[in-house]
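Case 878 in the screening queue. Each case pairs one protein sequence with one candidate compound; here the compound is phosphoenolpyruvate. For every case the pipeline is the same: read the inputs, emit a complex structure as tokens, and attach any notable structural observations.

Predict complex for case 878.
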Amino acid sequence: MVNKKYIYDFSEGDAGMKMLLGGKGANLAQMWKIGLPVPPGFIITTEACKSYWEEGADLLDQIWDGVIAAVGRVEENTGKQFGGTDNPLLVSVRSGAPVSMPGMMDTILNLGLNDETVGALAKASGDVRFAYDSYRRFIQMFSDVVLEVSVDLFEEKLAELREELGVKFDHQIPADSLKKLVGDYLAIVEGAGKTFPMNPTDQLRLAIDAVFRSWNTPRANTYRKIHGISGDLGTAVNVVAMVFGNLGDDCCTGVCFTRSPSNGENALYGEFLVNAQGEDVVAGIRTPRPIAEMKDAMPGVYGEFARIAELLEKHYKDMQDIEFTVERGKLYILQTRNGKRTAAASVKVAMDMLREGLIDERTVVTRVAPEQVEQLLHPQIDPTAKYDILAKGLAASPGAAVGRVVFDADDAVSMAKDGTPIILVRPETTPDDIHGLYAAKGVLTCHGGMTSHAAVVARGMGKPCVSGVESIKIDVAAGKFVVDGTAVRKGDYISLDGTFGNVILGKLALVEPTFSDDFKAILDMADKVAAMGVWANADTPLDARTAREFGARGIGLCRTEHMFMATDRLPSMQQMVIASTKEQRVEALSRLESMQRDDFIGIFEAMDGLPVTIRLLDPPLHEFLPKIPEFEKELSTLDPNSPQAESIRATMARAVELHEANPMLGFRGCRLGMVFPEIYEMQIRAIITAACEVTHKGVNAIPEIMMPLVGTREEMKRLREMTDGIASEIIKNEKVELHYQVGTMIELPRAALVADEIAEFAEFFSFGTNDLTQTTFGYSRDDAENKFLGVYVDNGILPKNPFEELDRDGVGGLMKIAAEKGRSVRNEISLGICGEHGGNPSSVAFCHALGLNYVSCSPFRVPVARLSAAHAALGLLE
Ligand code: PEP
Ligand code: MG
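Case 878 output:
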């Protein structure tokens, strides 16, 4: 006997019960509660699914009486009988987890039909064709998802029949042929060694069992893994009385967003199909009509729908994605949920709703996911480009992409491996193509509308998609598509414009997008919520200005070596590197000093009033010299006795001397400043002199001088003394009020472990998690990702690439030790991060938990980090 309540009628639930009733069920119950036209039904809870997996199929025995009783109540509500030979009740069975999960079994429609009830349905509806059409759909769906008979077998049969009859669409197939098709379908099931259950109660039980089973399929597990969804949630099962959108021309079915999911415009945005069932809209077999046309086709129903759409949006205070069906002029709402949308739409909808007084600022911040922000920074086709449009389709997901045409998801994955940009071209996509969509830059389909699988998934991924390009004829087997006589073959380049629905032959130039005022406003609201600041890694005045435009509140890392790589500086830098005496080195350095000072002046000016963290020279010196084969190549073109050849041989000899077996663990970082103090002395002089100079001009310079790769107390002590010695003298001479700080990167495990000793001399720490990941794991940051990390992640040896997402246990553990030890001797020590992880949402959330003062990342990731910091503070990102 079961004590727990596992079954809820719609009248017993509400939207707050998502964990128990699943998203779909809780919303159906809520709509029932507020009096909307929802067909009667009930929900088997997620708890039942969990017990099913714990106790096995027995659970169904335990709850079965309850299911039958609930069906009885639906019978009462509808006045129909389940399995009845007079007025049969048909139901849909749908899964519905607490979070949306496309990896699971979705829907079985028309359950309850068999050789007898089909006749009763024909009689009750007065439409024999409709009854057999419903039956053949049911057999196919049930056999596919419950009995696991390949759907292709049914589709082939159907295609044969269309050909035989000489018709293009399924709805042109007459009743008699459908009746025969039902027989053929049942024979297919039998031929596959399966038994199709004729008893409706058996059908229902098997379907519920299939929903529970679908929770643990490899596809669902993969989806959960990719999206970080817990495997413990379970799915609910929704059993709902069927209503029919395919009973004639006063019937339709459709899906509609209350605002545009593409750009957020406040107008109904959807599609409907007259005389059709729900699957026809999303399957993309017939291209649906825009919802606006429903106004003329069914004016009364359209008015009611528009009223309900507004009511639902006000009720949920968010844009809704609604499924509906009209049966003989009567509207039914079958589902509502918060609509998935592009980043641009998220921004516009949230800001419009703020202006409409529907939501407050904090809610606005929650409405844009950090992962979506990338999309706002998506490329578009260069507006000055001239081109002919090869074909036009629906603007299903915005942004532009250029790539090579591929017709198959597996091919897309293998061709994209070496970085080749891919455009996946399919008649339509299904969840089985998901890996191809991940690998591709953009998607093109010839069937399906804005709500087709390809469109929805591409929008979610922020990739451009053009769907419903009906003029394209795809021949997957031949590896080509043809449009107006032009053949485009596998491997050819095309450009896609998902914002306008255009397909263009060849490669077009793309441009980076701009930053809208609405989005800027949301980021300002995010800053008010966030506990951490967001700074940027910027090496030039231009980078600094970009960073500031994106809202960076400081520079967390200025890598000075990048300045030395510039063509006008490299020769002096090379002379410094090859110098064999201190005098020669000092001479080369003095030439670099004025250039370096000018760089810093530009950056201080750009960052007036904000901290600028400048890191002294870090890379191994040989990085500034050509590689040995390059020397050899140059020598081969010269007279060996010429002075030029002599000089090249000398430089080459120095390059050989500087060669190290493990340069990343070698003579780099502050070790350079220990051995050749004149290098660091020059840089410190340049920084402080530049800061004094701009201070004289009224600029508020806030220099923070940062030492790389410090591992011991003694290194930090000497570097601090060196800096203070030089700085105090310049500041005294310049007679300015200048505050500067001296600190260090924490990028070696030893530095983290002795952070208290280092903090005696360091006023700030910045976690260099690129090197810290390298040195903690012992993985070369230059090689690991190409050599073995892919295999590690694919095989689950590591959950994620640790150079992308911070390894919380290992690298994060060291950061925690360092933060605690640093604070133990210097309570107010400023803590930040400047490794690549500073722009990764999950890693930002970890930094928030550690109580860091700021994260620093590349300028283009600043908006992502600002939103991540706010979401972490709101507990939305952990
Ligand atoms: C780091 O190591 O994390 C860092 C920011 O420095 P770099 O990448 O320049 O070594
Ligand atoms: Mg480093």
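Case 878 observations:
- The chain has a mean pLDDT of 92.
- The two ends are 40 Å apart (CA to CA).
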